[in-house]
Design goal:
Largest sheet: 2 strands, antiparallel
Number of helices: 4
Order of helices and strands: EHHHEEHE
Radius of gyration: 13 Å
Oligomer: single chain
Shape: globular
Strand content: 15-25%
Distance between the termini: 8 Å
Structural class: alpha+beta
Strand order of the largest sheet: 1-4
Length: 82
C-alpha cells in the first residue's frame, strides 16, 4: 500500500521531540519519512513494540508500527495513494 507524506513538518517535529526525550518512537517517524509503502515502512521498523501508560485512563497500551501508521493516517499526516 503506497502512501505520500501530507504533513512533512509535523512528522519531523514529532520525530525530533521523541528523539530529544530519548523515546525510541522517533524511529517510527523516521521510517515513515524514508519509506513510500506500508510494507517498506514495516520492514524498516521490524518488531518495534513499546509499552506505554495512557495519561487519560492510566491503562497500559502498546505502541506498534501498525498503530502508529494508522494514527498518522487518521490525522492526515500521510495519505494513501490509489
Amino acid at each position: 500500500m503506497k502512501y505520500q507524506i501530507m504533513k512533512d513538518a509535523s512528522l519531523r517535529e514529532s520525530m525530533r521531540k521523541y528523539k530529544d526525550k530519548g523515546d525510541q518512537r522517533w524511529m517510527l517517524f523516521d521510517a515513515l519519512l524514508r519509506s513510500s509503502t506500508n510494507e517498506e515502512y514495516l520492514a524498516k521498523v521490524g518488531g518495534f513494540e513499546q509499552e506505554m501508560t495512557s495519561r487519560k485512563t492510566g491503562n497500559p497500551w502498546k505502541v506498534t508500527p501498525e498503530n502508529c501508521f494508522q494514527y498518522v493516517l487518521k490525522n492526515g499526516r500521510i495519505g494513501l495513494i490509489a
